[in-house]
User: What shape does this take?
Amino acid sequence: MIPPIDPTTLPEHAQAVLAGQNARLRLMGARGIVPGLRPEALLSVIVALAAGPSCEVTTQAQLTLEALPDPILMGVFGADLQPACIDALVRHFPNRLDVLAAVLNMPQVDVESVMHLAAKGTELVCELVATNQERLLAHPTLIEKLYLNKHTRMSTVDRLVEMAVRHGVELTGIAAWQEAARAIKGELIPERSDEALPEDTYFRETAELAERLTGEPDDDAFFEDEDGDEQLEDRFQPLFKRLANMTVSQKIRRAMLGSKEERMMLIREQNKIVATAAARSPLMQEPEAVMIARNRSVSVDVLRVIAMTPEWVKCYLVKKNLVENSKTPISIAQRLVNQLRETDLRKLAKNKNVSGAIQLAAKRHLDRRRT
Assistant: This one.
């Protein structure tokens, strides 16, 4: 939590504006009209008024911040700005690289302000945040925010993940951190560049293609042909080829950030690091988990991830599909059998597509319920 403006550090006439005794004076302050104040004190007054309870003064102060003139804006640098002022600059000037570069170099900048830039910043803003390794290692959540920001360059993410691994930092905010950490050890890490690298462009173009191809929530990129074999819809073939040409690290990040169609492709990867990363994606929705649980072409590792995720095993269809899927580990299927409805247990007891152990478990639970 960033502390509010401390008025006691301001000149007396600035304190008088904030005291609230003169409505006209407060409104003038909200408009940035306080003669005799240095830029940093005037900014403090405007920020303090913008954070007040909703009223004409607050609205006017917020409008003034949005259109802060350059003489005031550039005049605050070099002064001892309060963290709330720096945060206001961060949030009201998200595309001013000169402003953001200056505030990121201020020792009094609050990490919460930097978090905001890491999570919401543009590509070039993310590059600014990513240059301060000391701050990143002191606050690893910044690396997580950058990883999950779709605007952060892939080459930058690779360097940050490698740095975290090298320093023994575990990024628990990245759902597939273990997979990402394992993947980076076998990859060549590019040197930092002021310009986007070819792999950055490739990653961005793949993301743009995936966005164009994204369909309805209940659409499936795969279908079964007349022989019962799984096939990919023709329109997704270009996306499939682009994903196939990516490195393991790139695939894992697409699994974390990408579309449902990308996850459904990556979850079928033979490389289990990629497949399990896709199964851990924070963007996955319940209908996807239901489809994966019944799919016999995914790996045992993927089914294990689904079965060990509390959010998914709360869903009855996920549990039912896992039990009926012959690839689900026996120990997991047996644990879930007793949570099925009686009608499904009766079908399961006669289902020739599941193992004898599961059929027997279903019969035993039926017998127990009858006694």
User: Anything to note?
Assistant: The longest strand covers residues 222-224. The mean pLDDT is 92.
